[in-house]
Structures are given as structure tokens and as C-alpha cells.
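Narrative of activities, Objective 1.

The group set out to show that a structural description can be obtained from nothing but a protein's sequence at a throughput compatible with the screening campaign. Below is one input-output pair from the validation batch, recorded exactly as produced.
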Amino acid sequence: MKYYLIAGEASGDLHASRLMQALSERDPEAEFRYYGGDAMQRVGGTLVRHYKTLAYMGLVQVVRHLPTILSGMRQCRSDIASWRPDCLILVDYPGFNLKTAQWVKQHTSIPVHYYIAPKIWAWKEGRIRLIKAFVDRLYCILPFEVDFYRRHHYPVDYVGNPSLDEVDDFIAKNPAPKSKPTLLLLPGSRRAEIADNLPRMLDAVAKVSGYDVVVSRAPHLPESLFAEAVRHGARVSTESSFRLLQGATAALVTSGTATLETALFGVPQVVCYYIRGGWALRLVRRLFLKVPFVSLVNLVAGREVVTELVGPDMTPEKALAALQRILPGGPGRETMLEGYRDVRRRLGSAGAPHHAAALILQSLK
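Output recorded for this entry:
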């Protein structure tokens, strides 16, 4: 069969590549064509456009590059229509993908499948009407998403979380490094969140003695963003976050998938997410955010497993106090690790891409 996939960022590229591998194992005649990245290219098929040419974040960046984004959408639609795949598989990236789904359903008979459901349970819940109208099958990777979609009378399939596979595969193939006690800072992959959060993280760990401090830097980010970390005596590393987590004693982490990955590695953490204009953030969170937590760890657990310091609550003093509770010998470390074990149980079995591939093929046949 012919599969057309769209992934719009690095994580989606990785998840899509594993789904492609799983589809190939079940469908020896599988052909792939896609908007994606390097990981998908390594599996095979035809890369139509690299996600980096469309990966613009924030209102200003989107407006500045709107002609490029619109051109990419037109190219994608034309390519899908001319190739006529047996299935369109969308991977996260809701802004681009939901518009593509709408066009495909209105102009073709190609079934639309969505792997890694958009996080509309946190923001833009109104997008449910687009999903109901233009998506045939939806595959969730977070267990609480199932109840959310059921409340909207939209049936979904829970396939497990791909981070389980990725973390467990990495641990199996890479023995843990021997290193000194280390505090790991994961300040995010966007310039604004790094500029807002990293200085406060550094101030917090500066008051902890006996630990090496390592700061994770995504390779695409300039070294100048991390100059302050160097001045603080921290080591800035472009190694994979998985490799850094293997050797970490504890971590300060911005919100996102990294919080769940940190939990799966068994590294106690404090979630830190400072944004300037704290009063405005509190207002927006109260009016628009539909969930009680910002970290995936707490959302999966349904309770507070990790401390979340969001907006004005993210101060060096509060981060230090929360960190000291989860260092070896601290009163909160074992409690958090037990919470992590509960999160892993709730995520269910590994094999998310294989479960999704089986359901996709079952539907198409």
C-alpha cells in the first residue's frame, strides 16, 4: 500500500519513522512519501519536503514566513492528490495537519488517520469539530486522552506511548555512563523559553555543592544562548538528552515531552516554566487552559508527582527548595520515584508504533 505521512518537527519525525518501520514489517509492499525529516529518510521512501523549511514558532515568525508556509501547504495538497495514497497519516503538528485533513476529505476519498492526537485537551478544545469532521481514525498516546475524546462522543484508540519504546530501546543499547553526581538542566528547545528559564535554573543550582552541572543544548541553537551557563561553570552539551539523563542525579526541566522522558529514565525532577508577565499567564491559564497541570508526568498520574513551578512561581529560591527535596537523602526522592512507577503502569505496554500500524492496516483491509 501507499502511505503519505506528514510530520512537522523533530519529535514527529522520530515517531513517524518508527511507525513507518512497523508498517513495513506488516506490509512488505509499503511505499512511503512524506513531509518529514532525517529519521524518516533513513527508513526509506521519498521525502517531498523537510520539516525544517516550515518549522516556524510564535506569531511573529509565522507571520514573517506566511508565504512559505502557504506555499508548503499548496505543494502538500497537490502532491497528495497526484500520488493518490491509500492512506494519509498525520503526526501531531495540528496547525498544518488539520488544514490538510480538511482539504483531503473535501477533495478526495483518501482515508485520514491521525497518529499522536493533537493536545486539544489543553488548548483550543474547539478543534474537536475539525477532528470529528475530517479525521477517520485517531490514535492517542496518553491514557487520559481517551476519556477526553469519549466525552466529545468521538471514538479513539489508545496505542501506548512511543516514549516508552524509545527510552527502553536506548537503555538496552547504551550502558549507563560512569559519572560524578550530576544536576541536569533541560531548558527547552526554543530561544524564548531558554532565555526565560535558564538563568533562573542556573541561580538555583549554584547554591548546591558537590554536583557537576550539565546544560543540554539542542544542536540547532547558537552557543551564545548558553554563555551564561559557561560563566556559571556549567558544562554545555549537545549530546542527546537521553544520554545526559542516563548520568543525571536530578534535573530541572521545562514542560513538555522531556518531563515524561525524565520520569521514564527514573531521574527526579522539578518542572520549571517561567514566562514574563506572570499576572497575564495566570489569567490566561485560568481562562483557557483546561487541565490542572502542565507536565505530562502529573497529567498521566492524575495527581502531583513532580513539583511544577510555573510563571511567577518559578524563582531560584523555590526551584532550589524543590530540588533539595529530591536529591539523594531528601524527603521527597523515593516518593517521586514511586510516582514514576505509577506513571509507567498507567502508560501500559510498550509497542505504540506497532499497535498503531496494526490498527491502520486492519482499517484499510
